[in-house]
From TrEMBL:
<dbReference type="InterPro" id="IPR017853">
    <property type="entry name" value="GH"/>
</dbReference>
<feature type="domain" description="GH18">
    <location>
        <begin position="49"/>
        <end position="455"/>
    </location>
</feature>
<keyword id="KW-0378">Hydrolase</keyword>
<dbReference type="InterPro" id="IPR029070">
    <property type="entry name" value="Chitinase_insertion_sf"/>
</dbReference>
<dbReference type="InterPro" id="IPR011583">
    <property type="entry name" value="Chitinase_II/V-like_cat"/>
</dbReference>
<feature type="signal peptide">
    <location>
        <begin position="1"/>
        <end position="23"/>
    </location>
</feature>
<keyword id="KW-0624">Polysaccharide degradation</keyword>
<dbReference type="InterPro" id="IPR050314">
    <property type="entry name" value="Glycosyl_Hydrlase_18"/>
</dbReference>
<keyword id="KW-0119">Carbohydrate metabolism</keyword>
<keyword id="KW-0732">Signal</keyword>
<feature type="region of interest" description="Disordered">
    <location>
        <begin position="347"/>
        <end position="368"/>
    </location>
</feature>
<keyword id="KW-0146">Chitin degradation</keyword>
<feature type="compositionally biased region" description="Basic and acidic residues">
    <location>
        <begin position="347"/>
        <end position="365"/>
    </location>
</feature>
<dbReference type="Pfam" id="PF00704">
    <property type="entry name" value="Glyco_hydro_18"/>
</dbReference>
<dbReference type="InterPro" id="IPR001223">
    <property type="entry name" value="Glyco_hydro18_cat"/>
</dbReference>
<protein>
    <recommendedName>
        <fullName>chitinase</fullName>
        <ecNumber>3.2.1.14</ecNumber>
    </recommendedName>
</protein>
<dbReference type="GO" id="GO:0016787">
    <property type="term" value="F:hydrolase activity"/>
</dbReference>
Length: 457
């Protein structure tokens, strides 16, 4: 997933513990007032396609978003971000380290674990809640699953910030088996979960991994070993989930979030691994961003003659298909956020935006430089403050551009997401998902469903 996924988690944790505003001092539990859920029109799923979104557990202050705000009836899947395992997390911040250390006391290495247990199990969303087994997001997820029994809720292990432990786990057969066993035990305990999602970024340790960022790339033998381990992980998780099925009578899904670039796809033996998997969530976004000076589309559906390095949703999906993933298992990624630059220069206007260079991460002083939620883009940048909206029809990609400052922000909007949904139908893919639901104003999830042909009642 993108770098923003857990960049705020530590600060939110520290702020929450440092300030006791809205705290239930009698019970010594934090109370968070959930925003009133916005009404929405139900769009029945007539296509049978996946409509999924990730739910981040850390939106408990500021722009608060809770499980109660989920438009659950218009989703087939909710993917909870993120869980991890009891293993070294060298490069995470102090807040995350503290959470993991507390939750892993007395547990075997590589035991599957909740990270932010306060958010997951303890936070109260009612000042005087009814007694229940556990509270927090998990308590709310249990309720919405009871109300929507067909909704599949998955815990996602890893994410950009917490994928480091997979590398250590891969070195140890005992560690892998411990993780597999305890991950399935966790979803058995919290029985609203309907399977497991793995977000290992990335097997092989190249490019975006923490290791290569620090100049310690894996050897070819280590890359080959992690390739083998990914398949073993899927096979063993599938076997344990099937054992659980025999006990509960329920079916359990197994999925993974993966990158569709050629090098990342080659690092996984998809032809073998996919047979154990229900869905493969293709992270078809973050093609370009403010981490580098090259300007380009974030998540364009089609690669065009001007597209650098062939970056496009269509090309990534074809790469995954050629690697052995059946079309019906591939779920296309949509971005409920944008990435942007400022100070960029374009030497070839006819190749806009791909010819843009010298960009620096765009910042307005609120959050991660170069990263904006869809809601913020609509509030601050679309046809206002010197920014002009544009749409690349060939690529199916919206953007805003400020010619005075060289600012450019690429994102998904209802038009581009609806195009992705229609593409899924036309090409026979498994569905569409998003990172992440809290950044939507409601129009993007509607577009996901509309593109798939779902209509309001």
């Amino acid at each position: 997933m993108n770098t923003f996924k857990l960049s705020l988690l530590s600060s939110l944790f520290l702020a929450a513990t440092a300030t006791s505003a809205a705290a239930d001092t009698t019970e010594n539990h934090r109370y968070v007032q959930a925003p009133k859920a916005k009404p929405y029109k139900v769009m029945p799923n007539t296509s049978g396609k996946v409509v999924a979104s990730y739910f981040p557990d850390w939106k408990l202050q500021g722009d608060i978003y809770t499980v109660r705000n989920l438009p659950a009836k218009n989703l087939t899947h909710v993917i909870y971000a993120f869980l991890s395992m009891c293993a070294p997390h060298t490069y995470v911040n102090d807040g995350l380290k503290k959470m993991i250390e507390e939750n892993c006391k007395g547990k075997e290495p590589f035991t599957a674990t909740i990270v932010d247990s306060e958010a997951a199990l303890d936070v109260r969303f009612d000042k005087k809640p009814e007694p229940q087994e556990y509270y927090g997001h998990f308590g709310e997820l249990k309720k919405i699953h009871q109300q929507n029994p067909d909704l599949v809720i998955l815990p996602s292990f890893g994410g950009w910030t917490m994928s480091e432990p997979f590398r250590a786990m891969a070195k140890s057969e005992e560690g892998r088996k411990t993780f597999v066993k305890t991950a399935v035990e966790l979803i058995a305990k919290y029985d609203f979960f309907g399977g497991i999602d793995i977000d290992w970024e990335y097997p092989g340790g190249e490019d975006n991994s923490h290791v290569s960022w620090r100049g310690n790339s894996l050897t070819e033998a280590e890359k080959a070993h992690e390739r083998e381990v990914f398949t073993l992980l899927m096979k063993e998780l599938r076997a344990e989930l099937d054992k659980l099925s025999k006990k509960t009578g329920r079916e359990y899904e197994l999925s993974a979030a993966v990158n569709g670039s050629v090098s990342k796809v080659a690092a996984i033996n998809f032809a073998e691994a996919q047979q154990y998997m229900t869905h493969v969530y293709a992270m078809t976004y973050d093609f370009f961003g403010g981490w580098g000076p090259q300007v380009g589309h974030l998540t364009n559906l089609h690669a065009t003659k001007d597209t650098l390095w062939g970056m496009g949703v269509d090309n990534m999906l074809k790469t995954l298909e050629n690697a052995g993933v059946p079309k019906e298992k591939l779920v296309v990624g949509a971005a409920f956020y944008g990435r942007g630059w400022e100070g960029a220069k374009w030497d070839k206007p006819e190749q806009f935006p791909e010819s843009g260079t010298e960009g620096k991460a765009h910042t307005d002083g609120s959050g991660e430089p170069g990263y904006f939620s869809y809601k913020d883009i609509m509030k601050k940048f679309v046809d206002q403050n010197g920014y002009q909206y544009g749409y690349d029809e060939e690529a199916e990609a919206p953007y805003v551009y400020n010619k005075n400052t060289g600012a450019f922000i690429s994102f998904d909007d209802p038009r581009s997401i609806e195009a992705k949904g229609k593409f899924v139908l036309d090409q026979g893919y498994g569905g569409i998902f998003s990172w992440e639901i809290t950044q939507d104003d409601g129009s993007l999830l509607r577009a996901m469903n509309k593109g798939l042909g779902h209509k309001t009642k």
